From TrEMBL:
Its EC number is 4.1.3.36. It comes from Ostreococcus tauri. One of its GO terms (biological process) is menaquinone biosynthetic process. It holds the Pfam family ECH_1. This is 1,4-dihydroxy-2-naphthoyl-CoA synthase.
Length: 342
């Protein structure tokens, strides 16, 4: 492809980054909408291409308690933001600890995720770490007591050792909207698992991935092992856990751990572009696809989640509402006008 053609494709196929020859040479550039012949523009490109690369307009968001006073909860270890275009962003804000999480961090992330789930204006959620050095370095080892993670600063139940990150994993997994991990620097230990349970991972070229558990006396025998094996295969998953090595971004891309790799300076923009593309698409189609992809791994729990989405759709149908109205009107429902599918 000559330079002119590369520029043409680059304007539409934004995953091609001509500035990063290393990535291009690896053959991992993506050209989502590009025609095979760069000189022609398909109708698909014309209609769906040209996604804005403008900076996202973020506003700090707050989370409220369920209590009737609706008081705002103080976020100490997480930053929560929203954009008018429908993106919510959760940032682990402990850069001095390479964004290691405490029980409090996880609690705050869960509050934000809950809010993002319930906010109908939010269509996609970004998870990231503050700064360029780390997405997340897993559980804060200084908050790990003899029996598990505790929050020494808090009282009451916070003294009970726990692994509440498992609840966050499930929350991301069952989130009816896509969650994108935007990874700069280290995504290791429990931080590596967090990016794996996200639906998509966009990695900066300085990203480093790995499981450290076997070196610090920890492991995740749940999604951290089984979902990993689905992503990268049994042999590689065993390698990651048994040897506890670190892998760079290109290795991670080759392994299928991440969706794309971009220069660090492009990470925020590229993440915004992926969000915008998702936001253009049918939220129901995306939700059901996520349900189905999860259900294939999650057994009955996955079917339960997908079943919930199906029921929600059914509630919006005339047939579903005939049942509701008939009950409220004290009459026998008349389902005769609804087609019986063959
Ligand atoms: C991430 C490093 C490789 C970065 O190295 P480097 O850039 O050289 O920085 P450092 O100087 O090491 O770190 C700077 C500063 O941060 C502190 N720090 C870093 N990570 C942690 C951490 N995880 N806990 C506490 N503190 C941390 C570090 O001490 C420095 O502090 P100073 O005061 O400035 O000295 C490197 O930092 C590193 O290897 N970090 C540790 C990675 C790790 O082992 N993480 C824990 C893995 S186990 C885990 O995450 C438990 C949870 C879990 O895995 C799990 C278990 C069961 C079910 C589910 C899960 C789950 O999903 O999480």
């Amino acid at each position: 492809m000559d330079d002119a053609a590369r520029r043409r494709v680059g304007s539409i196929a934004h995953h091609v980054n001509p500035n990063n020859q290393d990535l291009a040479n690896e053959g991992f550039s993506r050209s989502t909408y590009a025609s095979a012949d760069a000189s022609t523009v398909s109708s698909y490109e014309r209609v769906h291409g040209n996604v804005s690369r403008d900076a996202v307009k973020w506003t700090r968001a707050s989370v409220r308690t369920d209590a009737s006073d609706g008081a705002t909860i103080e976020l100490r270890e997480v930053i929560y933001e929203k954009s008018p275009e429908g993106i919510a962003r959760v940032t682990i804000n402990r850069p001095e600890k390479r964004n290691a999480f405490t029980p409090r961090t996880i609690k705050e992330m869960r509050w934000c995720m809950d809010d993002a789930r319930d906010d109908g204006s939010v269509g996609v959620i970004v998870l990231r770490g503050m700064g360029d050095l780390a997405f997340c370095s897993g559980g804060d080892q200084s908050a790990r007591g003899e029996g598990g993670y505790v929050d020494a600063k808090a009282g009451g139940s916070e003294h009970t050792p726990r692994l509440n990150v498992l609840d966050l994993q499930m929350q991301i997994r069952r989130m009816p909207k896509p969650v994108i991990a935007s990874v700069a620097g280290y995504a290791v230990g429990g931080g590596h698992i967090l990016h794996m349970v996200c639906d998509l991972t966009i990695a900066a070229d300085n990203a480093v991935f790995g499981q450290t558990g076997p070196k610090v006396g920890s492991f995740d025998a749940g999604y951290g092992s089984t979902h990993m094996a689905r992503l990268i295969g049994q042999k590689k998953a065993r390698e990651m856990w048994f040897l506890a090595r670190f892998y760079n971004a290109i290795d991670a891309l080759k392994m299928g751990l991440v969706n794309t790799v971009v220069p660090l300076a492009e990470l925020e923009t590229e993440t915004a572009v992926w969000c915008r593309e998702i936001l253009r698409n049918s939220p129901t189609a995306i939700r059901l696809c996520k349900n189905a992809l999860n259900a294939a791994e999650d057994g009955q729990a996955g079917i339960q989640d997908m079943g919930g989405s199906a029921t929600l759709l059914f509630y919006q149908s005339a047939e579903g509402n005939e049942g509701r109205r008939a009950f409220l009107e004290g009459r026998r429902p008349d389902f005769s006008k609804f087609q019986r599918f063959p």
